[in-house]
Amino acid sequence: MNIKYDMFLLLALMGTASAGAQNKKAAKPKAKTTAVKPAMSAHAKALFDEMLPNTQKIFVIDSMVVSKDNILEAIPLPATYGRMEKTADFFNNPAKEGYAFVNGFGNKCYYTEMGTDSISRLYMQEKVGNEWGERIPVKEINERFTDISFPFMSSDGLTLYFSAKSEEEGLGKRDIYMTKYDAEEGKFLQAENIGLPFNSMDDDVIYVEADADKMAWFGTSRRQPEGKICVYAFVPSQQRQNYQKDEMTDARLKSLASLIRIRDTWTTPEIRDQEVNRLAAMKEKAKSSKGATENADFIVNDNLTYHSAQDFRSDETRRTYYDVIRLRNDIKSKESSLEALRDKYHYASASERNKLARQIMSLEDKAEQTRRDLKTLSDNLRRAEMQLIRR
């Protein structure tokens, strides 16, 4: 009996050891589980939930994953809109960190630069003659944001986009913000987070818009490996449109807000193919215009026409000329928006037409006011330049 008992006990112990070994083997895969990214903070989640019903409806054409140091190569911005480059290249100083944007006329630059305190701030410089003027810190932005980068001034000369961190208004790392320049006050208005789907809990770093060509880009690190950025090319709306929260589930709206599938943003595959071709044409346009700056003719009198800013005889009239060009571009942008609204009106339902009609009338009034402003400014510029010629 003792021998049988001892053998039974030995077999039981061996079974226990075998089961333990199997449990250890089964536990090994748990150690290989990929680390999960930290969830949003309570504040960021509340902000995301607040933004979600106002997720902007956009048509994403395509996306490209690039190294974070090569973001600019994925954005074929024609030179007429300006150029982006590293601050080190703009100043020809490899010690400087950050990015710079020079407008299409080559007379104004916005750039970020890292200070000795390791804080990146935004600055502006304006060209006077052939030389860049004094460096001016953009205090309204520097006082509210940190880690500022990738400034971009729209072709209207008033709308500034940039990426930055904000504990109060950000979803995580850097978000993309927008502000307008108030010419009367001589400063920028309070910047606003441009919301979803452009921002996320990850690093959202750049927004660039070729408005007259109805093309735009933004870059984000969401769902990307370390050191990589996904740059999305999309069609910006002429008039902002949001997804209708009541017409879809929360899961679908969150998917659209996070751009889980860009196919979900397409109207039809056929229209997407058209946009792909248009994006390809934009890339060719950017190549052909590389290094070019836009100069527009200005008639001084019946016998004299200027062909570039350098033809003007003073820095003051040269700056006024740039304002004239800005207003001309603003009119083109408004006319393009009106064309899109009128096309939409043609296919809209009766209820939608009432709303569109009000938008069209409002934009027509604004366009007409801009034309009057342009005429007044152009007349003043002619008189000022003629006085310089007569001296």
Task: Describe the 3D structure.
The protein is an alpha+beta fold and 391 residues long. The protein is 39% helix and 24% strand. It is built from eight helices and 17 strands. It has helices spanning 2-31, 42-51, 87-90, 139-142, 250-258, 269-288, 315-347, 350-390; strands at 59-67, 83-86, 99-102, 108-114, 120-128, 131-132, 136-137, 146-153, 159-165, 175-182, 187-188, 192-193, 204-210, 215-220, 228-235, 298-301, 304-306.
End-to-end Cα distance: 129 Å
The 3D shape can be described as globular
Q: Kindly report the average pLDDT value.
A: 86
Tally the beta strands: 17
User: Roughly what percent helix?
Assistant: 25-40%
Q: Helix and strand succession?
A: HHEEHEEEEEHEEEEEEEEHHEEHH
Which spans of ≥5 residues are poorly predicted at pLDDT below 50?
Answer: 1-36
Largest sheet: 6 strands, antiparallel
Q: What structural class do you assign from the helix and strand content?
A: alpha+beta
Question: Helical element count?
Answer: 8
Tell me the strand percentage band: 15-25%
Q: What is the gyration radius calculated from CA atoms?
A: 28 Å
